[in-house]
Each structure stands twice: as C-alpha cells, then as structure tokens.
Amino acid sequence: MFLWVLALGCTGGTPEVVQHEWPEIEAGAPQAGTAEAAILLPAGTPLGGYSSRCGYLGGSSAQDMRHSSYAVGFVESTGVQSRPMAKVLWLENGQDHLVVVKVDLIYAYDGLVEVLEERLQAATGEDLDGRVIVSANHTHAAYGPFSDSYHFYLGGDRYDEEIFQRLAQQTTDLAIEAYEGLEPVALGTSWVKDWDPDDQVYRDRREDNDALVVWPDAEPGYGKDPHMNLLRVDRLDGSPLAVLFTFGIHGTSLGADNSMISSDAPGHLEMAVQEQFEEEVLVMHLQGAGGDASSAGKDENYARLESVGEAVVDPVMTLWQQTPVSDNPIEMETASRSLPQHTETIRVTRQGAVDWYYPAPDREYRADNVIYDEAGEIITPLDEFNALYGAAFCGSDAPLIPSGNIGTDVFPYSACMDVELVSWVLLGIFKLTDEWGMEEMPLPLPSSLEAGTTASLLGPLPTLGLDGTVEDRDLLVGFFPGESTAMYTEQWRRRAEAELGHSMALHVAYSQDHEGYLLIPEDWLMGGYEPNINLWGPLQAEHLMEGVLDYSAQLLGNGIQEPADPLGQWTPTVYPSRQMPERTPDTTPNAGQLVEATPETMWLPLDLEPILPSPAEVQRVSGVVHIAWQGGDPIVDQPSVGLEREVAGSWEAVLSHSGRPITEVFADILIAHTPDPLYPSEADQEHYWWAGWQAVGHVKDRLGLPLGRYRLVVRGQRATGSETHWPFETAAYEVLGDPFEVLPGSLSLEMDSSGMWAWIEGPSNGWRLVDVDGESRGQNPVRGTVTVSWSDSAGAQVQQEVEAVVDDTRSWLSLEIPADATSIVVTDEYGNRGELP
I need a surface site. Which of 4, 99, 512, 776 has the fewest CB within 10 A? Predict the structure, then answer.
C-alpha cells in the first residue's frame, strides 16, 4: 500500500512529495507477557497528590522535624503501609506491539514514556514508536518528585533525577521481563453498567454539576461513571494470565495528613482480586473517570483500604467468569501524538455543531463577563479566558492573590491566576533560583504546550455487551493525559460511536502525560475544585479529545500500518538534562542489629506504641507483633519484611492464597523509619526501623490464620562504598525476629433470653480489616457455622451446631440453652473460641 506525504526538502525548506510504502495490517495470533514488582524508592521521598503537603501551603502530613535530602519543598514520607506496584502487560500479534505499564503513582509523565520507549526498543529490537503506555493508579500516597513538569512540582515536589532514573530502570527491567515471557493467549472483553449501585466501592464526589443537563437521555449531573470494562487474558490451556479492569476511583482514602507510602484504594482493589486465584495472576486496575469519583469503603484508616478491595471482588470476578475469550488472530494498531495546546490553537467544534475558541490574549483587555447567551448557549469566542500563558486555580470565587487575576470577574474565571505570577512562586518554593540558578521560568511552560495521547485498536475480540449478548468486534482504547471526569468519559464514548463507529470505546485516564482534570466545557464552567488544575481553560480537555478522534479516524482501521507522525509534527516535550544529585549514604555499621530500646524520637503510624521485645504468644486478630532494628540509610535501604512459619523444623515463607509472599508489599506488615538525630540529613545518622504485623490472614480467611510458630524476617542493604551518586555499592544484612506462637482467637459472648451474641474484638492497637461489617478496633461478627457446647445439670456434654447470623458488628446465635447449663463454649470454623462460666 502506497501513501504520499509532504516532506521539507533539504535546501530552502521547499515542500516535496515523498513516496512511502507502508505495510498492510495483518491479523496474527495474540501473545502476551506479564510482570509485576514493587516500586522501591527511599523512605523520606515526598508523596505526591496533595499540594497541602508543600511547606509553603501548610505542610500537612509533617510528623516531626526530620529532613530528607529527597525533599525540597514538600514534607518527607515516613514509612510503608503498602508498596506501590509497577505492572506490565505486553501484547503482540506478530506484526505490532502494545506495552501497557501501570504504575502506582499520582499521575503519568511523558518524559517517562519517552525513556521507556527508547530503552525497550534498544533492548528488544522491536519497533515501539508510540506503542508504550504509562498509566498511573492515582494514589495520593506514593512517590512524587519524578516529573519535570514545572507546574506539577506543586503536586509532588521538585523533580529529582535520581528518583526518575531509579523509576525508569525498575520499569524498564520489568517490561523486558514481560517481553521475554510472551506466550500464546486467548483474549476477550466485557462491559457492565451500574455494578456498584450502593456506592460500596466508589461514589460521585462532584456536586457542582448536579443540575447540569448535557444529553437529553441522561440524568442531570450524570453522577459517577457507572461503567466497568474487563479484559481477560488466558493461556491456551485455559488458565488465567492477566485480568485488567477499568473504572474510575480516586486514590485519596488516606488523606493529606498521611505520611505513609501506600498504593491507596486503587492498589487494594488489585490486592483483593488477585487473591481470588490459586496462582499468581497479573491483576491490573486501570483508571477511568476517576476525576470526580471518590473511594468509598467502610471502617477507618488502613482497614478502610482493604474494605474497598473486598467490595470490588464479587463484581469483578462475576464479570471475569462471564467474559468470553478466543485465540483467533487479531489486528493491532496504535497511534500516539503529542497534541498542541495554547490559547491560539485550542478549538472545539464537535464536527461543526459549535465553534468555541479563545480570542488572542491581551493583557489590556477586560472581558465582558458574559458567558452564556439568552438561550443558555456558550458565547464564542470565550473572551473571559484571557491568559497568554494559561491560568491556574480557576473555579472558586476569588483568586489566591487578587493582583494575579487574568482580568475577569465572573465566576468561575474570577479565581483564575495568571501562570506567569504562579511561576515566580514556584521559583521560590522549590529553590530553583538558589540551587538551579534559574532567574525566571520559561513561559509558556514548555510541558504545557503539548499533551501526550494514544489510541489503540484491538480486535476482533469476543465482547460481552451491556445487553448480555456476545459478538466479535474491535475495541478502541483512548489513553488520556489527566483526571478524566464522568461527563468527559461519556462524551468520549458518544463521540467515538457517532464519529468513528466504535460502540463502547474504552477510556483510560491518567495515562501518557498529565494536564490536570479533564472536563467538557459545560462542566468546567460549573466551577468547583476540578477546574483549578488544568492551565488552558474550559476548552482544553475536549480539544484534546477531538485531536484523538481526528487521528484515530485517519490512522486506525484503514488497513494500513503507517506511522502516526512521519513528519515530526506531533513530538513530545523535550525536557532539560538534569544532573544526578550528590548524596552520600550513612555507613551504618550497626545495620542488622535488633533493638529493644528505640530513640525517644521514634515515630510509629496510627499513634502506635512499640511493643518490644515481641510477645512469645499472640492470639489471632488481637495479637500484634513489633520488631525494631538498626538498618541502612534509606538512600540504599528499602528493607523487605516477611513473615515465616516453622514447618517440620524448617522456616518457610508464608504465602497468600495466590502464592505471593506475605510482606510489607501487600499491606500485611507496616514499616516506619526514623533517623537519629532527626536532622540535618547531612549529619552522620543512625537509622532506626520498625515493623508491625497483626495476626490476621491476608484477604482470604482473615480469622483463620494457620496456628503455629512464626517469626518476622528483615532483609535490607547498607552502604559499603564511597559513591556520591546513585547507584551505590551495598552489602546485604538480615535480621531474624524472635519466634512467637499464634494461638486461636478469643470470641466474646453475651447471653440473651433466646440465644447468644458472639463477636471477635479488634484490638485498640490494630489496623487490619477483620470483617467488612466490623470494626478494626471494635466488634466484628463471627460467620458460618459455629459449634456451641455446654454441660447439662447431670454433667453430660451437649453439643449443637448453629448458623451465625450477622447483625451489625456482631452475630446472633439462635439456640435454647438450659438455665442450669455450665461451661458454655462457642467455637467457630477456624477453632477460635469463647467461653461463658
């Protein structure tokens, strides 16, 4: 197949016609490879997601006076609740590739996309131009300073070259592992709607648009996006290889005051679903319309995260079981473009239905402050957005700094601050003048002038539709650079069907780049929190959508495998080269020693008090084991703490139902770090580490942890070289905790006239979810069949099996026990036991 393109001649820039022959699209047998691992970066690295963690804006989450060399303007992190994960699904069909890299981070960064593409292409020899996806889970409790987009320093601190290179290396290695594991697979996809009607998993958080009507056939305000998509990937023997499910949910359960590293609610969705399998299956949650959807759940603190995961299990597994798969050949096409965005280039036409644009910015101009005409239609041009370099913090009634307004008084433009003013604030907060020698910020901000986007077409795939029917059809996937909202995602589905003919096009947000919240213009003009982050006003997001629709129409589904950008018109942001920061880790000669006396400054999460030494016996649920040790400097030490059990005289790693080791990665074990002295970080510090484990099973059988002897084992690294830049020379150390015995849990009982109440009490120093209907630090129901036994007046033993009926946080046992009965004992299915005299 021949295509003709214009190219610039070498002399004088005269356009010339160049003939290229691009191959025709060919269907091929699908193959897939997967890999997953925890993202390991130093404790002390600031967390991304809440600008209030910036010291200039309040310093929320500060726990003490510690300082880390990884923090510039933000508060330091202090430990680990669960490790953020990186997961890779590599798809190919013999002609094309699609590499989906999902990272538990606050947002995607186009600089990481480009580096991964280059490194993977060099390592594999495959053509991966535009075929690498980086998608974030949007946790507000993972590492922040990996993005060099200046305005998003306010989202996670100043860019750090070491943090970026560590992240890039780990994700590159993981993607290569997935590539090397490619194998033939069967694929299928499915859709479900209104699957969380009671808001157990996620809920609409945006009230500002509740009265907004956009489509006559949809309710005002639209609410949370009710759709979920699932992609099923099976090996040819029928065993599961990967499960990808997509819907939107914010990663904000832990809040701005949290300083513990965590994958937050989105990560706990994956933890719960992956434990429904009896082998390691890649479970990947991709974000949809998460911009205006908060996580729900029950209980509090870390248990709340686990409850969100519990609530998603049945809907996801039901949909997975219903999803058909096929190993028939499929076609694969992917196109990526960095789309230009500026007041002079942004325009929304909706295929001629409107013509919305901004006039040329003029700082002497005062807007007419009239947004709508008499019919309620948006007036064009939108002269209220009078911003040469863009504007931030729109959506409320008044700007943070009145003199920085863009010259418009009408809501929601009234709060818009000129980016030029904001740029001077950034210079000071993040020490760009003092430490980087920047006299002023480049304007417009370079990373704001284009947005990375990708569209991919896969199929035909067996597809379970919303009406319950199955048909083979193509799946169009749009990967969008920001926090997509429910109306925006619905607009994508409607426009993709109307303009491209693709029913139920999938929308994956937080991917490839980040531009803040993505709202359709009508929604942006409602104001509120969401319009405050994107820099190019109410038209920016749908302008990007129209760009994706346009190049999807040109490049996908035409039978030709042509490049998305043969003339280099849609190139990504070029970021400046940064130097690797100088850091010298402390030598910590005592690393590997258990300690029983921690420093007075030792910090533990949830106001826990250290229990040292470890108790020799602990009961299920109520038992908590602590361990403390001197370890390495966090610059080199990201210790792993695992649980082991003695089996036939040997110590073995305890595995979850899916075969994964029980460690701090999956929220079973908490870790905290405290340097001594707390500051300065340049001092010769000792580094104290703490870990805590509660005797609760991981996801499955929470009350049924196997009895026996256990111990905690720490494996870490200490510095041994003299390097002043990463990577550093290290040596391993190991700490063996004292063994302890896990005993049955204690049931609480209370007699009533017609039966008995039974429950198991969560400890006051606990943090694990015990039961979705209970309280981590309170009462929790007993489930299933319990055995009740007692002695009658003659001394004979009587035994009765009773079905426990959950009633709020306790369980009711309906039975008749003689008034003169003695020694009443209740035992649940796991052997946990309670007794009344």
Answer: 4
Ramachandran region, residue 536 (left: φ > 0; alpha: ψ -120 to 50; beta: rest): alpha
Q: What's the Cα-to-Cα distance from 383 to each of 370, 386, 412, 420, 541, rounded to whole Å?
A: 9, 6, 13, 19, 18
- Residue 541's nearest CA partner among 588, 502, 489 is 489
The answer to whether residue 826 scores a pLDDT higher than 70 is: yes
Helix (H, G, I), strand (E, B) or coil at 94: coil
Cα distance between residue 604 and residue 592, in whole Å: 20
Topology classification of domain 593-743: Immunoglobulin-like (2.60.40)
Rounded percentage of the chain residues whose pLDDT exceeds 90: 91
Q: Quick check: 742 and 618 in contact, CB under 8 A?
A: yes
In tens, the pLDDT along 103-162 reads 999 999 999 999 999 999 999 999 999 999 999 999 999 999 999 999 999 999 999 999
Cα–Cα separations (whole angstroms), residue 769 to 270, 301, 303, 668: 16, 10, 4, 10
Query: Euclidean distance between the first and final Cα of the chain, in Å?
Result: 87
Residue 237 CA to its chain's centroid (Å): 31
Confidence of residue 812 (pLDDT cuts 50, 70, 90): very high
Q: What is the DSSP string of 457-507?
A: EEEEEEEE-TTS-EEEEEEEEEE-SSEE-HHHHHHHHHHHHHHH--TT-EE
Q: What is the pTM of this model?
A: 0.96
Of residues 654, 640, 667, the one with CA closest to residue 269: 667
| Nearest Cα to Cα of residue 590 among 719, 678, 726, 724 | 719
Of the candidate ranges 24-38, 529-543, 558-572, the one whose mean pLDDT is the lowest: 558-572
388, amino acid identity: L
Question: What are the C-alpha distances in Å from 225 to residues 203, 264, 509, 548?
Answer: 9, 20, 13, 21
Mean pLDDT for the stretch of residues 419-430: 93
Which of 633 and 819 is assigned the larger pLDDT?
633
C-beta neighbour count of 206 within 10 angstroms: 25
Note whether 300 and 149 are within 8 A (CB): no
Partners of 676 in beta bridges? 686
616, exposed or middle or buried, with CB in 10 Å at 0-12, 13-18, 19+? Answer: exposed
The Cβ of residue 262 has, within 10 Å, a number of other Cβ atoms equal to: 27
The closest of 776, 741, 742 to 761, measured between CA atoms, is 776
173: phi then psi, degrees, rounded to nearest 5 = -60, -40
CA distances from 749 to 812, 824, 837 (A): 10, 10, 11
**How many whole angstroms from its chain centre is CA 604?**
24
pLDDT by residue (tens digit) across 734-790?
Answer: 999 999 999 999 999 999 888 999 999 999 999 999 999 999 999 999 999 999 999
Contact 116, 175 (CB under 8 A): yes
The residue among 170, 163, 91, 164 whose CA lies nearest residue 133 is 91
- What are the structural domain ranges in the chain? 31-336+448-555, 343-443, 593-743, 747-836
Among candidate residues 181, 143, 237, 79, the one with its CA nearest the CA of residue 641: 79
pLDDT, tens digit, 9 for 90 and up, residues 153-196 = 999 999 999 999 999 999 999 999 999 999 999 999 999 999 99
Tokens standing for residue 281 = 């299956």
pLDDT for the residue numbered 12: 44
Helix, strand, coil distribution of the chain in percent, nearest 5: 15, 30, 50
Residue type, 596: E
Tell me the C-alpha distance between 700 and 682, whole Å: 45
**pLDDT value for 401:** 66
Over range 42-68, report the average pLDDT. Answer: 96
